[in-house]
């Protein structure tokens, strides 16, 4: 009796998981379909293969779009169109310290305290060493096959 109850609970959980998964995928399909139906010229898009550009024209009957990518026009099936990727803000290595924290702004005024300037120069040296491939005074070659070490 106890094993029968356990089996019923397991089967019920499996059915529940399948129902939740199916519902979630149906919502995603609906959102993608709404996005593709709302495409209009000038919208920025990406293709499934990674081409980025703007919509030049849309033909909903043939399910095709024409994408303008830096002056080059190409025709795509509407199923290959996705939302463009979100490009994160770029931060150069010279602007952060070894832990990824932003470096303090350097002011044009000269302070009388030499410890602050030496501390800032030591941070700049650490960043410079990191860029060149040095870590804790140990030389680590980033490109051993190129022979740049």
Automatic annotation (TrEMBL):
It is a single-pass membrane protein. It comes from the Bacteria. It is found in: Cell membrane. The chain crosses the membrane at residues 6-22. Its main location: membrane. GO terms for cellular component: plasma membrane. Residues 89-131 are annotated as: Disordered. GO terms for biological process: protein transport. Keywords: Cell membrane, Membrane, Protein transport, Translocation, Transmembrane, Transmembrane helix, Transport. The keyword Transmembrane applies. Residues 94-114 have a biased composition (Acidic residues). InterPro entries: Preprotein_translocase_YajC. PANTHER family: SEC TRANSLOCON ACCESSORY COMPLEX SUBUNIT YAJC. Belongs to the YajC family. This is Putative preprotein translocase subunit. The lineage of its organism: Bacteria, Bacillati, Actinomycetota, Actinomycetes, Bifidobacteriales.
């Amino acid at each position: 009796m106890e094993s029968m109850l356990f089996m019923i609970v397991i089967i019920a959980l499996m059915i529940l998981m399948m129902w939740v998964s199916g519902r979630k995928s149906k919502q995603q399909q609906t959102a993608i379909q709404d996005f593709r139906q709302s495409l209009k010229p000038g919208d920025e898009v990406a293709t499934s293969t990674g081409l980025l550009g703007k919509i030049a024209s849309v033909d909903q009957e043939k399910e095709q779009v024409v994408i303008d990518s830096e002056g080059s026009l190409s025709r795509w099936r509407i199923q290959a169109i996705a939302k463009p990727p979100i490009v994160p803000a770029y931060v150069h290595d010279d602007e952060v310290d070894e832990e990824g924290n932003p470096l303090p702004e350097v002011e044009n005024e000269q302070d009388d305290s030499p410890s602050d300037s030496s501390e800032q120069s030591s941070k700049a040296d650490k960043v410079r060493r990191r860029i060149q491939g040095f870590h804790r005074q140990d030389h680590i070659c980033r490109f051993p096959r190129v022979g740049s070490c």
